C-alpha cells in the first residue's frame, strides 16, 4: 500500500509537472524529493557533476536559446542529453535511469576509458564533456549562418577565459608572453589557506629560473586574465602523484560565498570583479579509487530572495545552507562553481 501511495505521489507530480511553474514555492518539498539522480554503479561522479552544471542558469538558458541551431543536428547529443537529464529530474526512477544510461553510453562512445563501472574523476569527466560540446562549434556556426543568425557556443559563452603569462628577464628586460585559453582554473591546495589567497598567490609576480638569450638565468613571471568567464570553475588539486603513487590531498581550503578578483589582475576591467558561489562538487573519502561524489548547489527553483541550498547525493537530496556548505566542505571541495555578478557577457550571449 505504501509503495502504491509513493508511486501515485510521484506519478501525480509527473502529471502536474507539465503545467506547473517550478519556481513556485508550494512544490518545494516535492521538488527536493524528486531532484535526485540514481546511481548506475559508481556513477556518482557523473551525477554530482551534472547537478552542478544544472545549477548554472546562464549555461542552461544559453543552450535553450541556441536550440533552433542544434536541435536537428547529429552533434547536438550533448545538449539534448543534458536537457533530458534536467527534465527527467521530475520523472520516475526508471526514466531517470534510462536518461542517465543514454548519457553515459553516448559519452563512452567518445571516451572509451570511461567505459567501465569504476569511479572516475569528476573534473576529467566534465572537461571532456565540455570540450566535446565545444568541438561542434564550427558545424553549428555554419547552420546558424544558413539561418541568418549568430551562434555563440554555450561552453565558450559561460566558461571560456584567456590568461596571459608574461616572463621578463631580470637583467636585459627581454619580455615574452603566451596567451592560453581555459575553461577550468586549476588551483593547488595549500592547506589552511583561503581560496582567494591561493588564487591571488598564483597571479602575483614571482621570480623563476629561466635562461634568457643574454645568459641570465632569472626572470620575473606573472599571470593575469585577458578575459574573464561568466562561470569561473575552480578545480582544487585533490589527487596527486607522490613517489609514483596516487594520493588524495584533504587539506582544508577556506572559501566563502563571494570570490573577488582585483582589477589589477584583469586586462579590460576597471573595477574588481565579483563572483558568487553557486555549486560545489566534493569528493568524500580518503582514497583516490573509492569514496563518493556529492554536489551542493543553490536551489534555483526558489525565488532570488529566498534561496536555500541543496545537497545532492545521488538519489538523496536534502536542504542545506551556504553556511553549512562553507563549513563542511573545506577538506572535500573539488570543483567550485562561481557565477559572475552583473555579467556583461550575458547580453553578448543573446545573439540568437
Ligand atoms: Zn636577458
Helix-strand blueprint:
Layout lengths: L1 H16 L10 H7 L9 H11 L2 H9 L1 H4 L6 H12 L4 H18 L11 H14 L1 H10 L7 H6 L1 E9 L5 E8 L2 E3 L5 E2 H9 L2 E4 L8 E8 L5 E6 L2 E4 L2 E4 L4 E2 L3 E4 L11 E12 L7 E7 L10 E5 L2 E5 L1 H7 L4 E8 L4 H4 L4
Parallel strand pairs: 3-7, 4-10
Antiparallel strand pairs: 1-2, 1-6, 5-6, 7-16, 8-9, 11-12, 12-13, 12-16, 13-14, 14-15
Could you explain the architecture of this structure?
With 352 residues, the protein is of the alpha+beta class. It has one domain (27-348): Cathepsin B, Chain A (Alpha-Beta Complex), CATH 3.90.70.10. The chain has helices at residues 2-17, 28-34, 44-54, 57-65, 67-70, 77-88, 93-110, 122-135, 137-146, 154-159, 195-203, 322-328, 345-348; strands spanning 161-169, 175-182, 185-187, 193-194, 206-209, 218-225, 231-236, 239-242, 245-248, 253-254, 258-261, 273-284, 292-298, 309-313, 316-320, 333-340. The strands form four sheets. Strands 3, 7, 11, 12, 13, 14, 15 and 16 form an eight-stranded mixed beta sheet that branches. A four-stranded antiparallel beta sheet has the order 2-1-6-5, with no helix packed on it. Strands 4-10 form a two-stranded parallel sheet. The chain is globular and about 65 Å long. The model is unreliable at 1-28 and 346-352 (pLDDT under 50). It binds zinc ion. Zinc ion is lined by residues 169, 171-172, 174, 212, 214, 216.
